[in-house]
Amino acid sequence: MPAAPDDRQLLAQSAAGNRAAFGELVERHAASVFQYARWIVGNDTDAEDVLQQTFLAAWTAAADARADGGARPWLVGIARRFALKLNARRGESRARERSFEELGLEELGAQAGFGDERHTPEVVAVALEERECLAGALAALESEERELLVLRDLQGLAGTEVAALLGIGIAAQKSRLHRARLRLAIEVRRRMGSEAPQ
């Protein structure tokens, strides 16, 4: 069985008009791009818009892609531009909203894991508390700190990729990342009620 094509091959095939190759590229990276966009724009609806705009732009720019280390950093860079434009248009202070009203009770129950012993109400409550704590702590950070943490720690991009994406040097990226991680730890401790005395 032949090896699956790498991202550079898929991009070259996409640039030549191969929709199946582009579909494979989308399948490989859509979840990662969506997750990044979700953290930056704050809700699923806007993240979906960013995702669609990203892949439309990627399709038209596939011939110009710089993807030596894979397509993900290039795609996240495109998503970043759309997400930042969206945040600037709506103002980052807009309330972040998420609605489950259109889902039926059965679908909500299935998504909540009802009937799965690994998702007892107690386990779910603890997980939700931890997730809310982390999400709240991330939301409290400056947007530049939050983006840096999302790119490095959630997306797993290399320091050199993040530095290039943000247009800063590697030393600055390391310094800012360290500061952002410390600020996140402080925010988590505040939310857990264990802030150190000052």
Q: How does this structure look, described?
A:
The structure is a single chain. The chain has 198 residues and is mainly alpha-helical. It has 2 domains: 1-95, RNA polymerase sigma factor, region 2, helix turn helix motif (Rna Polymerase Sigma Factor, Chain: A, Orthogonal Bundle), CATH 1.10.1740; 115-189, Winged helix-like DNA-binding domain superfamily/Winged helix DNA-binding domain (Arc Repressor Mutant, subunit A), CATH 1.10.10.10. The protein has 9 helices and no strands. The chain has helices at residues 7-15, 19-41, 44-61, 72-90, 105-112, 121-140, 143-154, 159-166, 170-191. Helix 3 (44-61) packs across helix 4. The chain is globular and about 55 Å long. It starts with 6 loop residues before the first helix and ends in a 7-residue tail after the last helix.
CATH uppermost class of the largest domain: Mainly Alpha
Proportion in β-strands: under 5%
> What would the average pLDDT be, to the nearest integer?
81
The sequence of SSEs as H and E is HHHHHHHHH
CATH-defined topology of the largest domain: Rna Polymerase Sigma Factor, Chain: A
Report how far the terminal alpha carbons are from each other: 63 Å
The DSSP helix count reads 9
CA-based gyration radius: 19 Å
- Say which CATH homologous superfamily of the largest domain is assigned: RNA polymerase sigma factor, region 2, helix turn helix motif
